[in-house]
Structure formats: C-alpha cells, structure tokens
UniProtKB/TrEMBL annotation:
InterPro entries for the chain: GlgS, GlgS_sf
Protein name (Swiss-Prot/TrEMBL): Surface composition regulator
Function comment: Major determinant of cell surface composition. Negatively regulates motility, adhesion and synthesis of biofilm exopolysaccharides.
Superkingdom, taxonomy of origin: Bacteria
A Pfam short name: GlgS
Coiled-coil residue spans: none
Organism of provenance: Pseudenterobacter timonensis
Length: 66
C-alpha cells in the first residue's frame, strides 16, 4: 500500500469516527449521502468503520448518561 492510500484511509477513518459521534449525539447523519461518491469498495470499508465507531460512541454515550 502506498503512502497516498494510507493517508486516504486515515482520512476516511477520521470521517467515519466523526459521523458516528454526531449520530450518537443525536444529530442526523445521512450515511448514503456521505458515501454517495465513493466506490463500492470504499463504501463497504467506510460503512464497516462507521458502524464500529457508532456502536462504540453509543456505548460511551450510555456510560456518560449514568
């Protein structure tokens, strides 16, 4: 994997984490719009990371509310 691909993955990971946090805080997130211009491979990867971070953020939010 070249350096450009690694940087792109880091950027996508940051975006997935950011949108997941927004979702957990109750802000509407249209994941279809977010991934609309991505390739099928990028969409699958992004959605997997988004779901991971969304679950993580929702668990953290529950802990914060206790």
């Amino acid at each position: 994997m070249n350096r450009q691909d690694i940087n792109a993955l880091k950027n996508f990971d940051f975006l997935a984490r950011s949108f997941a946090r927004m979702h957990a805080l109750g802000q509407p997130v249209n994941i279809d719009a977010v991934t609309g211009n991505m390739s099928d491979e990028q969409q699958a990867w992004f959605r997997e990371r988004y779901d991971h971070y969304r679950k993580q953020a929702e668990r953290a939010r529950v802990v914060e509310l206790r």
